[in-house]
Amino acid sequence: MLKLCDVSKTYCGRKKEVAALREVSLRLEGGMLAALQGPSGCGKTTLLLVAGGLLAPDSGQALLNGVDIYGLSSECRARRRAMNIGFVFQQFHLIPYLTVLENVQAPLLASGGTAAHKYAEELLERFGLTARCNHLPGELSTGEKQRTALARAMMNRPGLILADEPTGNLDAANAAIVLDALVQFAEGGGAVLMASHDERAAARGQHVWRMEEGVLVSVCNLNEEG
To answer: What DSSP designation does 140 have?
Structure first.
């Protein structure tokens, strides 16, 4: 579903260049929940942005269902991203003047329709947000904001979810809700790649990739004995 091949990305600062990714390669298939761990600044968020078609690498390929997404026009890449990928950002990125229901529906506002509205309501019920459906993001707790962001990520029924620290600001109860949802998504055939410092999150995945200074230094398959 997702394949990165020798992906590199360097940021040019005022005083020096920072190599965020150094020839990173990985493969993520349907049914897989993988955690990406490493210290702050090691390149985890950059990797998610490249994988999601939001940040072009300097070299290498990012393949989504076998298609090099950076070989497409920006319009085609945006369409493919919208159809196939759900994002859960660390800072939520909810639209402040839209209600919870409208934020969840946002990925499909263009198509609209009764079916989209019904599915949005189902997601709100699943994440315990029905009573908050007409509230604005500023009226929500941190946990409610993250659950709204996750519901929005699932709205377009993507095959792949990319999550940046999805439990980083959450208490144990809310973290469990989010992780349970991601596990269920993978069990249903989806693929999840989450960058996280949270050991609770890593423990729920079948794979853990560790990064240091832009390099993928180790891979742990938690389903393998020993």
So the answer is: S
CA of residue 61 relative to chain centroid, distance: 19
DSSP state of 28: E
Q: pTM of the predicted model, to two decimals?
A: 0.89
Backbone angles phi, psi at 16, to 5 degrees: -160, 165
Is 226 inside any structural domain? no
Helices and strands counted in the chain (H then E): 7, 10
Question: For residues 108-142, b (16+ Cβ closer than 10 Å) or e, as one string?
Answer: beeeeeeebeebbbebbebbebeebbeebbeebee
Contact (CB, 8 A) for 161 and 191: yes
The model's pLDDT over 17-70, given as tens digits with 9 standing for 90+, comes to 889 999 999 999 999 999 999 888 889 999 999 999 999 999 999 999 999 999
Report if residue 87 sits inside a domain. yes
Does residue 129 sit within a domain?
Answer: yes
Q: What are phi and psi of 193, to 5 degrees?
A: -125, 115
